Amino acid sequence: MKEFFLAWSTVSMTTKVVRSIAEMQKIAQKLHRKGKTIGFVPTMGYLHLGHLSLVRVAKRYSDVVVVSVFVNPIQFGPQEDFNVYPRDFKRDRMLLSKEGVSYIFYPQARTMYPKGYKTYVEVKELSEKLCGRFRPGHFIGVTTVVAKLFNIVQPDIAVFGQKDAQQAVIIKKMVKDLNFPVKIVVAPTVREKDGLALSSRNVYLTPQERKKALILYQALKTAQSLIKQGNRDPQKILHTMYELINSVPEAKVDYIEIVDLDNLEPVSEIKDKVLIALAVRIGKARLIDNLVVKL
Ligand code: AMP
Fold first, then answer.
1. Is 239 in the active site?
2. What is the atom index within ligand 1 of the atom nearest the CA of 160?
3. Integer CA distances (angstroms), 234 to 100, 247, 248, in order
4. Which terminus of the chain has fewer CB atoms gathered within 10 Å of its CB, N or C?
5. The pTM is what?
6. Residues enclosing ligand 1, CB less than 6 A?
7. pLDDT tens, 56-114?
8. Shortest CA distance to 46 belongs to which of 166, 202, 208, 211?
9. Domains of the chain with CATH codes
10. Minimal-distance CA residue to ligand 1 atom 14
11. How far apart, in whole angstroms, are the C-alpha atoms of residue 116 and residue 104?
12. CA 38, CA 64: separation in Å to the nearest integer?
């Protein structure tokens, strides 16, 4: 009896790959009819422990977990890395089945954006700040694909990483403004032991650049301790961060900012809670990282 149960439970854990929008919607509707809640983790694949940590959070909050693997062409600029973005679906599928994910939504670009596609979702202002200044159109691509994915997967909850802090703020705003019946959960950034935030784009770093990339987290931690020591002037803290990062010749800063967590506006004085966010290019990689510092 026990053996039968084990065999049965293994079979019931198999992960189904769904490539069609209509099929994914049918599955979601059926699950809802049965009273099951759906937890959703949107990704671009080439999964690492950061993604898997979101899956584990989704599992805690829901009955059935759906993960999408889709390198979304419309969130990449013409000079960006869409064509070379790392992909390994076989490995992703293996990792997700080990995590007990029930469905992987794995559409093709032409399925998501057929010829004549015309509709885009824009969260104004928030999308133009921080990374938005350097990646025009990027967040329109993100909010458009997430809105579509929500309509396809029909989740009760969706999990996003704090690693992409601005993305999480923008998605929460979109969900609120467009009344999506989805609860957004933001899960903490997963880091390597030495502090580097996990990212699919870390594969672009050579071993030497990988070492240099540690300066991002070091600068964030330095800022955090300056604030904890009583410094309240963002300009002074930013100056120290720029000095630290600019001391690494390979590092090219796009921005370092200390902003309000809700509206992403730079703060003039550090009070209660701030987001320290940065984007730095090292070699072929554009790395982003952030820390929320509470007083
Ligand atoms: P991506 O595949 O890069 O689009 O990321 C998919 C999701 O994983 C997003 O919600 C990211 O914020 C999240 N994510 C990426 N890296 C990490 C990390 N190191 N820790 C936690 N979440 C992450």
1. no
2. 10
3. 44, 20, 22
4. N
5. 0.95
6. 43-44, 50-51, 53-54, 160-161, 163-164, 187, 189-190, 197-200
7. 999 999 999 999 999 999 999 999 999 999 999 999 999 999 999 999 999 999 999 99
8. 202
9. 2-187 (3.40.50.620), 200-294 (3.30.1300.10)
10. 161
11. 26
12. 5
